[in-house]
Structures are given as C-alpha cells and as structure tokens.
From TrEMBL:
This is dynamin GTPase. SMART domains: DYNc. InterPro entries: Dynamin, Dynamin_GTPase, Dynamin_GTPase_CS, Dynamin_N, Dynamin_stalk, G_DYNAMIN_dom, P-loop_NTPase. Residues 1-270 form the Dynamin-type G domain. Belongs to the TRAFAC class dynamin-like GTPase superfamily. Dynamin/Fzo/YdjA family. GO terms for molecular function: GTP binding; GTPase activity; lipid binding; microtubule binding. One of its GO terms (cellular component) is mitochondrial outer membrane. One of its GO terms (biological process) is endocytosis. Signal peptide: none annotated. It comes from Octopus bimaculoides. It is found in: Cytoplasm, Cytosol; Mitochondrion outer membrane.
Length: 554
C-alpha cells in the first residue's frame, strides 16, 4: 500500500486518470489494456463520431459497453463510482475486476492489472482478515504462469522487507517472470541513494530492477502534466544516477514491459494455443451435447422414444451402429447364455445322479406290490424318470433370470445416446417404463418354462428311436428267460445259450434297470436345450419387442 503503484500506471499511460487519496484507494482489481493506434484509426474514429469531435485518445469500460470516454477526468470518476458501487464508501474491497481499455498513439501495446496494496491493519468496513484477502486476490493473478509480475517497492523502505517481492517469490521462485520497480527515488534521505539496489547488489532480480520518480502531491495539486513530469524524471536520473540513467525511468519501464510481454507471449504461445484448442474442443463437445433447439416437443419426444426402441432392438439383433468390441452384449450375450451357459449346465446334469441301485430296486418292488417281479414294471420307470426330469427345471429358470438381467443391461447400453444425456429426466422415465415391461414378462416366461417341463413329465415317449438300445436289452432278457425254461424242461443244456458268469448277469440287470432312465433324461436334455431358447427367446424378446413398439413409455 502507498508504494506508488497507481503512479507507475499513469506514467505508462501518460495520463492522469486513476483515483488518488490517502490510505487504500485501489479497492478493486483494474485490468488496464493499452492499445496503440495510428493516425488512420484516429481519423476513422473522428469520422464515425456523430458530433465530429476530434479525439486522439479515449477509453472504454467493459461495464458501460460501447460508451466512449474522451475526458480522462471522466474515466477517473467512473472508476471511483464503479468501485464504490461494489465496495461502498468505507474502504471495503472486492475481487470483481474493472476492465478498462485505453486507445492512444503514445502508448505501447500492453495489458496491466492494478491490484490493491497489501495492508496490515483493517480500517473502515474492512474485515479482520483484510491482509489475507488482499494476498489471496494478488495470488489469483500472479500465480498464472502466463503473467509477468511487477513488484513495486518504495526506495525509502528496506527492500529486504518488501512484501511484494516475498509474494512474487512464492509463485516464481526462479524469478523468470518477476520485474522489480523502485519508486520514490527522489524521497530518499539526504546522503543516501539506491545505486546498490538498482544494480541488483542487494536483492538480484532476473528480469531487472528499474527505478522511477513519482509525481509529488504538489505536482498533483498544481496539475502538472505528464510530459513535464517525464522531463523532470529524466533530469533527476541524469543528475543523481548518470551511469544507469538510460536503464531507468518510466519510458524505459514501458519499453521493457512491452519487450518482456512480447517475448513472454512468444514463449507461451505454443502452450497457450494448445490449451485454447483443448478448451474449444471441450466446449464444442458440450455445445453438441445440448443438441438442436427444441421447436416441437411432441415430435422430439416421439423421435427419442423411437430411436431408443430401435437401438434396443438393433442391439438384440446385432445390427447396432456402435458394436462393443471388448465384451459380449445384447443378442450375442443372450445366444451365449442359451448355448454355452445353459447348454453346459444341462450337459453337466448326470441322468443317474442321485439314484442308487437300492433306489431303483426299491421303486421296482414298490411298483410290483405283493408279487415278485419277473420284468421291470413301467410305472417304476416313469416314477424314476419324472424325478430326474424335474432336476432340469431349476437351471432352466436360472437361464430365464440371466436373459432378463442381460436385457436390463441393454437398457443402460442404449441410454448413452446424446438425446438421453440431454434430457436426464426423460431418460430416467424411459428406463423405469422399460424395466417395468421386462419385469412384467418375467412371470409368464417362468410359467412357460415350467409348462415345458410339465409337458415332458406328462408323457414319456418310449417309442422314441433313442430307446432302441433299451428294447434290445429287454429282448435279450426275454430270450435268456425262454432258454433257461427249455433247459429246465428238457434237462439238457441249450447249445445256443452260453452260461453267463456272475458279473455279466449283474451288468445285464443294471443295464435293464438304468438304461431307459439314462436314455429318457438325455432325450429330455436335448429337447430342453433345443426348445427352450426358441420359446424363451420369443417370450422374452420378440413378444416383448412387439409390445414395446406399440406402447408409449411416457
């Protein structure tokens, strides 16, 4: 605070246009853009002026749009009024910047930011943490790697205690973008000078240290113009610091800042261009996500629903535009569930699993009643077969559940369309309705599977060709029985009837008992693996799709 920052800016512009006073005067950041103009632009401006007024220098505020300020005293009053509008009249501060452009033939192309000076003790309406707030405001601007830091310190203070240099070193420890400015060279104590400071012997600054002479309060009271002030400054430097006079002063500061800014822009331009291109791409993508303007809401709603339904059906049929390459989805995954998951589960079911020899014998004996059995009763066969067929019902119902889950996943897959992202509430509603439709088809599908198993349980088709082996075994058993009867009646062994050993007799008995069971369950496995995907796919997908396309989901 009160180090002469605003005076430095005025010397760069060559005009007296900033508010002055005691204490903290700069209470909002001032973004000052200096634009050099030629004679042709001045003439064009004069011709465009409605009253033909000849203005060679003028200013524009961002908050007043296209209003032209030809009087710099008017610019000063506008800065003061805009500051008080946001911060009040009792020393309050604000982070909202004031943007000002100054067009002149006597300035170099330069953009500067005038920040409030760091103060320690709050005054007026300032909060208790005023120092921290101002430091945070300064850090917001100087932490930008594309900015050049202008550290202003008064010559009549110890540079080693400079708050501005300490703050600059926090964000620029190497000093690659920090320039030090020493003000009030003419106010130093008699017999002292700033030669060591200006030469960098006290604290070296990589971009340099430039000394300037500010206007005194007497100069301000007498309204001394900037041209006379610059001449007096040059005279003072030649008299006091002749060896380094050409490397100091407001004019040299302006040229140095312009040169540094141009070099800095040149160095930062590639990275800046990359950042701008990335931001353009991001915002263009965001803009595209908003879609076209909504003119007919009903038509747009119908289009979104139709596109979703088409995308859903295409995903099942495998004709979707965006096909997944990392995992199976849609119809392909349903096919995998039918033929791999469900098929392998059926194949893993052992037809004789859970049946022991004792179970088979017990079933046969229970089916014959009080009479000893000569042949295996068919009722015992049916009892055992039905018991084994029921084991196929559970994996079949699990297959229905897996297909239902996959059809639920397809909803999320189709919900990534731009229209869905644009209207999240509509997306949520469509998902709810489609989920409800799928859930409503689940009980009928389960009932259909249970009916398929019930159909197989209702009629055991022993005439099927797969029972040929069992018939041959039965025929062999009948012939053996007849041969043994002939041997017993005649008392002589039959030539065509070899005497089987004990092991062979046992195997034949087991084959006669279990062979039909094995054949029947294997036949049921094959029939289920073939029939269930066709009927299940119809009930879960085709029938559902027909219902979906003829029902409005919202």
């Amino acid at each position: 605070q009160s180090s002469g920052k605003s005076s430095v800016l005025e010397s760069l512009v060559g005009k007296d246009f900033l508010p002055r006073g005691s204490g903290i005067v700069t209470r909002r950041p001032l973004v000052l853009q200096l634009i050099h103009i030629g004679k042709s632009e001045i003439e064009t401006r004069r011709q465009e002026s409605s009253d033909g007024e000849h203005i060679e220098e003028w200013g524009k505020f961002l908050h007043t749009k296209n209003k032209i300020y030809g009087d710099f005293e008017e610019i000063r009053q506008e800065i003061k009024a805009e500051t008080e509008r946001m911060t009040g009249t009792n020393k309050g501060i604000s982070q909202d910047a004031i943007h000002l452009r100054i067009y002149s033939a006597s300035v170099v192309n330069l953009t500067l930011v005038d920040l409030p000076g760091i103060t320690k003790v709050p005054v007026g309406d300032q909060p208790e943490d005023i120092e921290m707030q101002i430091k945070e405001m300064c850090m917001k601007y100087i932490s930008n790697p594309n900015s050049i830091i202008l550290s202003v310190t008064a010559a009549n203070t110890d540079m080693a205690t400079s708050e501005s240099l300490a703050l600059a070193r926090e964000v620029d420890p190497e000093g690659r973008r920090t320039l030090a400015v020493i003000t009030k060279l003419d106010l130093m104590d008699a017999g002292t000078d700033a030669m060591d400071v200006l030469c960098g012997h006290v604290i070296p600054v990589k971009l340099g240290i430039i000394g300037v002479v500010n206007r005194s309060q007497a100069d301000l009271n007498n309204e001394k113009n900037m041209a006379d002030c610059l001449r007096d400054e040059a005279s003072f430097l030649q008299r006091k610091y002749p060896s380094i006079a050409n490397r100091n002063g407001s004019m040299h500061l302006a040229k140095t800042l312009n040169r540094l800014l141009m070099h800095h822009i040149r160095d930062c331009l590639p990275e800046l261009k990359t950042r701008v291109n990335v931001l353009i791409a991001q915002f263009q993508s965001l803009l595209n996500s908003f879609g076209e303007p909504v003119e007919d809401k009903g038509q747009l709603l119908l289009q979104i629903i139709t596109r979703f339904a088409s995308a859903y059906c295409n995903t099942i049929e495998g004709t979707a535009k965006n096909i997944e390459t990392t995992e199976l989805c849609g119809g392909a995954r349903i096919c995998y569930i039918f033929h791999e998951t469900f098929g392998r589960t059926l194949e893993s079911v052992d037809p004789l699993g859970g049946l022991t020899t004792l179970d088979v014998l017990t079933a046969i004996r229970n089916a014959t009643g009080p009479r000893p059995s000569l042949f295996v009763p068919e009722i015992s066969f049916e009892l055992l077969v039905k018991r084994q067929i029921r084991r196929l019902e559970e994996p079949s119902l699990r297959c229905v559940e897996l297909v239902h889950e996959e059809m639920q996943r397809i909803i999320q897959h189709c919900g990534t369309q731009q229209e869905m992202l644009r209207f999240p509430k509509l997306h949520e509603r469509i998902v709810d309705v489609v989920t409800y439709l799928l859930r409503r088809r689940l009980p009928p599908t389960n009932a259909m599977v249970e009916n398929l198993v019930a159909v197989e349980l209702a009629y055991i088709n022993t005439k099927h060709p797969d029972f040929t082996e069992a018939n041959l075994v039965h025929k062999t058993a009948v012939e053996d029985t007849q041969d043994r009867r002939l041997v017993k009646e005649s008392g002589t062994p039959a030539k065509t009837a070899p005497i089987p050993d004990v092991t062979e007799i046992k195997e034949n008995k087991e084959l006669r008992k279990c062979g039909p069971l094995n054949d029947e369950l294997s036949l049921m496995q094959f029939a289920s693996q073939k029939a269930f995907p066709m009927s299940g796919l119809y009930d879960l997908t085709e029938d559902w799709r027909a219902r979906w396309l003829h029902q409005a989901p919202v």
